[in-house]
Amino acid sequence: MTLDKNFLWGGATAANQAEGGVLEGGRGLSNVDLLPTGPDRKKVAAGELEMLEWKEGYYYPAKVAIDMYQHYMEDIQLFAEMGFKVYRMSLSWSRIFPNGDEEEPNEAGLLFYETIFKELRKHTIEPLVTIAHFDVPVHLIKEYGGWRNRRLVDFYAHYAETVIKRYKGLVKYWLTINEINILLHQPFVGGGIVFKEGDNKQEIKYQAAHHQLVASALATKIAHEVDHENKVGCMLAGGSHYPYTCRPEDYQEAINRDREGYFFIDVQARGKYPNYALKKFEREGLTIQMESGDKDILAASPVDFVTFSYYCSRTVSANPEDYAQATGNLFPSIKNDYLPSTEWGWQIDPLGLRNSLNQLYDRYQKPLFIVENGLGAVDSPDKNGYVEDDYRIDYLKKHIQSFKDAVEIDGVELLGYTTWGCIDLVAASTGQMSKRYGFIYVDRDDEGKGTLKRSKKKSFDWYKKVIASNGDSL
């Protein structure tokens, strides 16, 4: 069993990390526009520091990002030159509905994406479109409190219906909500949630999760009704947890930590709440408000395929304080001495990708799609912008071989693979441009200086050959 001849090779970006053009073309302000660089970024992302407008003394990289808003034609041309079969991108909710709760959409925003989809189709590139990628219009946060409020289910469903109908025939692969489990770790990023004094944070996060799960099921239902050709996926911030020792308590901790993320996908892929989650709510005294028809909505519209990001595995213990911690990753992890690390402390584990694929496929028995994987690294370009990024080629080569093994040896059903940040963009974790992932170098630094000129790295031609050979030539 080898990769299917229609295997979807490509790359991925997100509107908030690449597009820029904030407030251009009638766009409204979004939560992710308000993530500054520097020490306050984590507090804002976690909902611990309120920042609902731009403030003096801060730098907000999403304002311009890499200005794909102006450069998308040039960028798509480069993706086509690499031979992309698919391009994963997200829509900006506030570009379509500037406040999020309007009845009528912003036509300029709809036209912008329509032009992109037509250009992609001209190059026979399939759009894989994320409806909400860490993206909540600020008005919905100020007026309603973000996803903690049930009203967002209706606003999101109206937004989803608007874009799914508008792009019928142009887009057939949809993802409802990006890395939905990030809501538990960065509630402002994942759900537009800012905590107030006295809030029951766990209860609010899981209430917001319920709203997102219902909204995701409604979007799936709408997509299937609008066009029977539509395929809808969910999206997990993936990566298996290893027990640090063979102590049973460490193994149990690994199961519990995996379940924390699987909970969301269990609901989206199977259509109902797993018993372990219901027991958790009961045990921790969490009251999650569910309307009478919610269970039917979830049951009626499970997703067609499961997508996930994979950058690294994580190592856990029932007694983590006894061990040195890995740095850099959003998810807490003990340092795994068997693995090398990136410059940002993310541990490199290609075999972990194969393990994750097998766990997900065993669990859901649905087609899988790796929609983010890549190496964030400091690149040193020559005077022409060329980067000898052999380290990136080595990372991707090993991960591609790993997912090929999952398909060819283990029999996992895999639809495609999109590397993260196929063109350099703003890093979600730090807001840096210096943490680069792309095959295409963009001349912009961490302070927002640079020409925005695009240039090909060594990995550009390497990935072009990988795609042309359907993964045979690594």
From TrEMBL:
Q: Which UniProt key words apply to this protein? A: Glycosidase, Hydrolase
Xref: InterPro entries: GH (IPR017853), GH_1_N_CS (IPR033132), Glyco_hydro_1 (IPR001360), Glyco_hydro_1_AS (IPR018120)
GO terms in the biological process aspect are:
carbohydrate catabolic process
PROSITE patterns xrefs = GLYCOSYL_HYDROL_F1_1, GLYCOSYL_HYDROL_F1_2
Superkingdom, taxonomy of origin: Bacteria
UniProt xrefs under Pfam families? Glyco_hydro_1
Give yes or no: UniProt keyword Hydrolase.
Answer: yes
User: Which Gene3D superfamilies does the entry link to?
Assistant: Glycosidases (3.20.20.80)
Which cellular component terms (GO) are annotated to the entry? Answer: cytosol
Q: Name one GO molecular function term.
A: beta-glucosidase activity
Task: Indicate the residues that form the catalytic site.
Answer: E372 (nucleophile)
Is this entry keyworded Hydrolase?
yes
**PANTHER family attached to this UniProt entry:** 6-PHOSPHO-BETA-GLUCOSIDASE, GLYCOSYL HYDROLASE
* Recorded family membership: Belongs to the glycosyl hydrolase 1 family.
Which protein, by its recorded name, is this? 6-phospho-beta-glucosidase
